[in-house]
Design brief:
368 residues, alpha+beta, eight-stranded antiparallel β-barrel, elongated
Length: 368
């Protein structure tokens, strides 16, 4: 939804008046009551989703709210019906997330209530903390297309302190929590509740945050290292092949190689150069999107990203051909340049592993 601050003020007044605005009935009162009723809970101790709203609590005051963001904007609308208060915050900056805490801070400042103190951390918590610590992956992500890679960054890191608290961190910012009951923790900062559930071996499988956040422990293939390690090894081995190949050309030693070895080295070297070109092109294309030079919403894939896709296909075909030629050269007998032969074989293996990893992570679906 796109709107103005003035229109959002009218929208909030309508909700605070239980469906009416300036004498006109916009929603039947029964409809408004249904919209504000809790609809779904992830955990029995977490806040609920209502119909179109998240439920929350600011200092003991019940809140209906919803927020949103898109490139360049961060917004939040908070309604506190018992106070007749509505607050709408919108920032024209991707770094405006901090201002989304403004509604809570206003209520805490001008409508304070006595809140029961939080309990001290249990003495044995450090022994049990491993059940909760580790990385959790947001379930709000795609698995079917190229955006799977971006979804892998939607993570929360949970750690524990020596004095018995949990620290939940996202994008470099952490918040302390204390255990209040089995698998349930409350924030020392704002009193919000998180809850763990399920069993992943001897560790919790699920983490529920607020009224809408559900996180799960990632499997081995859902962790970013399952892509970055094969890609890193492939690129390093390719650079090694190119470096040795350049040295042999400088030394004029290539004529000593047999025909099979020359074909193998040539194809693997071309594949290595192509993979480096893929990385350079991908970096340039993603830089266009992040800088705003190209709109990811109106133009996908861009010409640069489409060029990256074609380079990716070229590198893949050269790698497959190079692997086949390397196998034939290996079967034909000992190479005249054993060092170059070993590096070529290793690079071929790493390229094949990298291709599998790129396929699993949907990188080949850049173009659709």
């Amino acid at each position: 939804m796109s709107s103005t601050a003035a229109d959002m003020a009218a929208y909030m007044r309508m909700h605070l008046n239980r469906g009416t605005l300036d004498g006109a009935t916009i929603l039947e009162e029964s409809t408004w009551e249904t919209m504000s009723e809790p609809l779904f809970w992830h955990g029995d101790q977490t806040r609920a989703n209502a119909h179109g709203f998240w439920t929350n609590s600011f200092n003991g005051h019940e809140v209906l709210e919803h927020g949103g963001s898109i490139n360049g904007f961060k917004s939040i609308m908070s309604l506190v019906p018992e106070l007749g208060l509505g607050i709408f915050v919108s920032t024209n900056s991707g770094s405006g997330s901090a201002l989304r805490t403004l509604p809570r801070r206003i209520v805490q400042e001008f409508f304070p209530q006595a809140v029961a103190p939080l309990p001290a951390p249990p003495a044995d918590f450090a022994e049990r903390a491993q059940r909760y610590t580790g990385e959790f992956l947001d379930t709000r992500r795609t698995e079917k297309r190229f955006e799977k890679l971006r979804g892998s960054y939607r993570t929360i890191e949970v750690s524990n302190t020596a004095d018995g608290y949990l620290v939940v961190s996202s994008k470099g910012k952490g918040k302390k929590y204390v255990e209040v009951s089995d698998d349930t923790f409350k924030s020392l900062v704002d009193g919000s509740v998180i809850q763990f559930a399920g069993d992943h071996g001897d560790r919790a499988e699920w983490l529920y945050v607020g009224s809408s956040g559900a996180y799960e422990r990632p499997t081995l293939l859902e962790q970013r290292f399952s892509l970055f390690v094969p890609v890193g090894l492939g690129l390093l081995s390719g650079i090694a092949v190119l470096a040795i190949l350049a040295r042999r050309i400088w030394q004029r030693a290539l004529p000593l190689l047999g025909t099979q070895d020359k074909i193998s080295v040539g194809l693997v070297g071309a594949a290595a150069a192509s993979w480096l070109a893929v990385v350079a092109s991908f970096s340039y294309a993603t830089g266009q999107y992040s800088s705003g030079a190209t709109s990811a919403f109106n133009l996908w894939p861009s010409a640069a990203m489409l060029g990256t896709f074609y380079l990716l296909i070229l590198a893949t075909l050269l790698s497959l051909a190079g692997a086949a030629a390397t196998f034939v050269a290996w079967r034909s007998g000992r190479s005249a340049d054993q060092t170059l032969a070993v590096c070529t074989r290793a690079a071929s293996c790493f390229f094949l592993t990298m291709i599998v990893a790129l396929y699993v992570w949907n990188v080949y679906r850049i173009a659709g």
